[in-house]
Amino acid sequence: MHAWPASEVPALPGQGRDLRIHDTATDGLVTLDPGPVARIYVCGITPYDATHMGHAATYNAFDLVQRVWLDTKRQVHYVQNVTDVDDPLLERAVRDGVDWTALAEQETALFREDMTALRMLPPQHYIGAVEAIPGIVPLVERLRDAGAAYELEGDTYFSVEADPHFGSVSNLDAAAMRLLSAERGGDPDRPGKKNPLDPMLWMAAREGEPSWDGGTLGRGRPGWHIECVAIALDHLGMGFDVQGGGSDLAFPHHEMGASHAQALTGEFPMAKAYVHAGMVGLDGEKMSKSKGNLVFVSQLRREGVDPAAIRLTLLAHHYRSDWEWTDQVLQDALARLDRWRAAVSRPDGPPADALVEEIREALANDLDSPAALEAVDRWAALQQDTGGTDTGAPGVVSRAVDALLGVAL
Predict the structure, then answer these.
(1) What is the pTM of this model?
(2) Angle at Cα 318 formed by Cα 313 and Cα 323, nearest 5°?
(3) More confident residue, 49 or 166
(4) What CATH topology corresponds to 304-405?
(5) C-alpha to C-alpha distance for 36 and 113, rounded to whole angstroms
(6) Tens digit of pLDDT for each residue in 16-31?
(7) From 3.20.20.150, 3.60.20.10, 3.40.50.620, 3.10.300.10, which CATH number describes the 20-286 domain?
């Protein structure tokens, strides 16, 4: 599966700062020192509907991570999956009377278009669950053969007790885990499981649903968590720098994935930092496909909204915060974009070197994009009020905003 085209990232003078970022597992800031190649895995979409603002906010956060690393002159090895076979996708295809593969391809293509418009840097490896199945099956067989998985009525489950570090990502108690498991795709009440929290690794073939050769597992399809583990281990290995996604993935998805990988390899941890973006709401509730309270990137683009303004709307909120989408936040972003473009269109302006360092420091401090935007606001206001004599300043600001914030002026 191919990703989307990369926009050029301007090179800036000087050196960026190492990233300090909030790690869910330790509930504190950690300073990442990835070495010459930074490794990041971000969980992708289940393509049964268009990209909404919640998706966009999540991918914007991890785009900033990449940009901070690139500014430190590191290379970035970024991997993202597409869950192109799963219950919600199959259910939507049945509801709409369409082929599930066609639906997945259509929505994945639209997602690529949205990411391109928003100038999100693409992953080096963009892998669908279906194409990963040949690598998933041997992992499930290894877990089973090691006693870390068991069969139940043809399905194969992971035993959470096989990983002594289970629970160390989300740090939730058993009652909270059980509740979230039921809400987020698990089946804690299924009779016969060794532990209610045990997640499915391989689902035996169901009538009327797609299935693949699972070797000694029989025909079926993979569980949600093992999909990402297989892709991450194949392309990044253990101990990669950042595992990213929305805050609703901390449990069960990232918790279970970490345990799968740790049981497979005997190494800990799977990732050095587990980083989670907040939720975007609409009309008082989290924006989600199941609720239908969505604002789509593609719809805004069709209405003629500048993608740079959409991105500025996202950047105006700290990535870990939960926030509400309103018409006003978009209008504020459009006004900000106009001010910035007017400021950099002048032939000269106030010196900008200090501004570049302010943006760098803000982003290095747990991706504080609101502080970065406020710094640019101050430069633009000074440009409007007093102007300046530095003929290179507008170009410096334009390149810095593009390179570090992904906004083309």
Answers:
(1) 0.96
(2) 65
(3) 166
(4) Four Helix Bundle (Hemerythrin (Met), subunit A) (1.20.120)
(5) 30
(6) 999 999 999 999 999 9
(7) 3.40.50.620
